[in-house]
Every structure is written in structure tokens, then in C-alpha cells.
Amino acid sequence: MIGLSCHSRNYGAGTPDEIFAFIQKLGYAYIDVDSVGTIPQHVVLANPQKAAQLTKELSEKHELQLAEYFLGAVAVDGASVDNSQTDPVRRAAMYGNFARICSYAQLAGFRSIMGAAGTLNKQIGFDRSFETAAATLSQLVIIAAEHGISFHVEPSRASLLNVPSKAIEMAQAVDGLKYTLDFLHFQVNGYSQDETMDLLKYTGHMHARQAAVGWAKCPFEHGEIDFDSIIKRLRGLKWDGIIAMEFWNGPDEDAAGMNAVEQTILMRYHLKGLIKKYEL
């Protein structure tokens, strides 16, 4: 089954109720909930049970199934902790906070949590940063599994996994790790889509938006990502997951007169046609 979701951050600020209501009106079945503006991480950490009850009530009220909690890096005392962090005290605190977040996700009814892949720690160099991040991710996978939640990370252009081959290496090093894959992060830097396609077998969730070499979040009509090939490959893999429309405007998109709602609806329409085209 390939489902289609909408990222809660796409359309700007609003109360959680307003955000859920608008995404329901757009006709989505699933929602990805972000941890910055919709259900903030600090709110979850303060009271996982209360935050889960609120999220579950919103989901039921607006008839939206909870797909992925868009977390990013786990915070300790209000500051993000990178997966390449070597301080054992901060790492232990980070694991404890992640367990609280997993408890929230489990109680609310999410399928998965998206964490951060980790970045280069210049003090220890790339190889040790990679090894440290792998050890961290292994522990996060275990904690999530204990709560019945899938744990994914996004191999982004700002992370240690900004090259497809490195993302494959990490997936092979960390048992049970899956990706939230966004082809934009590799397309914008000119990597062949064939290289990125090799990551699909390690993918549990996806983000969909168009991009071109050197042009992130380009308008749909200028996009170079071949979603026809992607959906065909997913069908061949008998992939069971959710593809989330992810597109919010920054200053460049505002200046170009782009509309986030239009871009996500165009992408959803395109993907719905491809999913039907390759029905099993």
C-alpha cells in the first residue's frame, strides 16, 4: 500500500486545530506532524501523555491518520544533541528524552518518527563522526522498537549522509534503520537519480517535492525528479509506506510567487496517477 500524506508545516503558522482542519479540507488521508510549530518537541518532553492525547483527539476529529512525527534532532535542556556527539552524559540524556518522545508517538498512534542522521563533528573528523552516529542510531532504533515505532532518518544534503553511497553504508551498518527519503537532497547537488534509487530498499517513508540541479524546491513544471520511475520501483519492491507532500515557502519561493498549496496539490495529483498506473 502506498499512502499519501501532507506535512503539517507546509502552509505556515496556525493552531494545531487550524492546521489539521485545513489539511483535511485539502482531502488528505494522512498527516505528518512537525515538532517545531505543530506539536513542539518541548511540549512532548514536558508531558508525553498529554501531548499524545491532544494529537490523537486532533487526528480523530479531523479524520486524519498519523503518519510520521517529524522530529529531527533530539533536544536536551532546550539544545539539540547531534548524533556525532561524544559526551556520554549528553548522549545518555538524549536517549532518555527520545524514549519519552517514542512514548508520545506510540500513545498518539504514529507509524514512525523521523530523526536526524547526524552531521560532521570537525573535532573528531568524518570517519569517527560516522562511527559515532552509527552507534547512536543503533540505540535509537532499539528504543523506538521497544515502543512499537519505526525509526527513520532523512539522508539530507546537510548531514553525514549527503552522498548516496554513504547513506547505503549507514543503512548497512545500523540494523533496522530505515530512511525518510527525499530525492531533492541529492538531485539539487547533481547526483544521478539511479544512485538515489538504490536507497529505496532502505526506505520506510518518503517526502515528495520537485527539484532541479542547483535549484531546490523548484516549481513542479521545472522539476527533474522522475517520479514515474520511483513509483514503478516502489511497486516492484512491494513497498508499504507513506509519501508525504513536503513544500513550504522560504524567502526565495515567496519572491518567485510560488504557492505551497498549489505545489503540493500538483504533486499529489501526479503521484495518484502514477500509483494507479502501477497498481499491482
UniProtKB/TrEMBL annotation:
Domain of life (superkingdom): Bacteria
Keywords attached to this entry: Isomerase
Gene Ontology terms for molecular function: isomerase activity
SUPFAM superfamilies hit by this protein: Xylose isomerase-like
One Pfam family named in its UniProt record: AP_endonuc_2
PANTHER family registered for this protein in UniProt: BLR5974 PROTEIN, HYDROXYPYRUVATE ISOMERASE
InterPro entries given in the database record: IolE/XylAMocC-like (IPR050312), Xyl_isomerase-like_sf (IPR036237), Xyl_isomerase-like_TIM-brl (IPR013022)
Record domain Xylose isomerase-like TIM barrel: where: 20-254
Name of the protein this chain belongs to: Sugar phosphate isomerase/epimerase
UniProt KW Isomerase keyword: yes
Organism: Paenibacillus agricola
